[in-house]
Amino acid sequence: MKxxxxxxxxxxxxxxxxxxxxxxxxxxxxxxxxxxxLKQFNEAVDRMRGGRxxxxxxxxxxxxxxxxxKESIAQAMRYAREHNLYKTVEVMPSAVTRIAVRQxxxxxxxxxxxxxVSTVEDAWVEINKLKPYx
Length: 134
Description:
Mean pLDDT: 92
Low-confidence stretches: none
Shape: globular
Strand content: 25-35%
Number of strands: 5
Largest sheet: 5 strands, mixed
Number of helices: 4
Order of helices and strands: EEHEHEHEH
Helix content: 40-55%
Structural class: alpha/beta
Distance between the termini: 37 Å
Strand order of the largest sheet: 1-2-3-4-5
């Protein structure tokens, strides 16, 4: 099993950390990949060098997350917010995934930093609207 089957950093250009989560993250899978997931995610955030940034989280291929998955996502959200995240634009066409990720955001302390859209194209529109606030 490769982490790229479930998570990848797409890019860290122009003050935007673009990540993709996909597949079905069972609790057993999270036990295997959470350390690597958080390490790669945190490294992508660290590339912003403490400056204000946006995140684009493409979750179109993520199946409804397990409890342990939500905990890992909440840890990633906390880290990003602690390191100057302005807003996250999340691509989630699934209502069930939206609910689970909202719960993860609430577990991270707040969900006011999130913008939820249905397509990657819509996400880039939102990113471009938010960039002037960086």
